């Protein structure tokens, strides 16, 4: 999508600290990290919110989740733990409308979230 920030990051038009990329996904450090590890995993293809995932996106969603686990493992957080979050629409505080999976690790995270 022409005017989407994360599409531009995926296309290399806006710089980001990329930690993984492949044919379908890009993962990069959040510009305003909320934990020592705070990575966003996005599909290269524009999908606005979690509501817009189709049946045909099941494999893509699985790749995002498994990539989150893999990146957290690389940082040594496999055992101590980490959090994965999809914010969807206003009540969850979604601000960028290109679906993204937050991966947060390296500190104790409280529950329930704010
Ligand atoms: P949301 O609130 O939509 O779930 O999360 C959007 C995230 O994108 C926020 O954590 C925010 O800090 C991050 N973000 C916003 N703009 C940029 C940017 O230009 N670069 C990077 N790397 N992260 C961004
Ligand atoms: Zn987009």
Q: What do these coordinates show?
A:
With 114 residues, this protein is α+β, with helices and mostly antiparallel strands. The chain is 24% helix and 22% strand. The protein has three helices and five strands, in the order αβββαβαβ. A five-stranded antiparallel sheet has the order 1-2-3-5-4, covered by helices on one side. Strand 2 (25-29) and strand 3 form a beta hairpin. The radius of gyration is 14 Å and the shape is globular. The N and C termini lie far apart (31 Å). The relative contact order is 0.22. Guanosine-5'-monophosphate is lined by residues 5, 16, 28-32, 40, 87, 93-96.
Features:
114 residues, alpha+beta, five-stranded antiparallel β-sheet, 3 helices, binds guanosine-5'-monophosphate
List the helices and strands and how they pair.
Elements: H1 5-10, E1 18-21, E2 25-29, E3 37-43, H2 58-74, E4 82-85, H3 89-92, E5 101-105
Antiparallel strand pairs: 1-2, 2-3, 3-5, 4-5
Bound molecules: guanosine-5'-monophosphate and zinc ion (ZN).
The site of zinc ion has 6 residues, from helix 1.
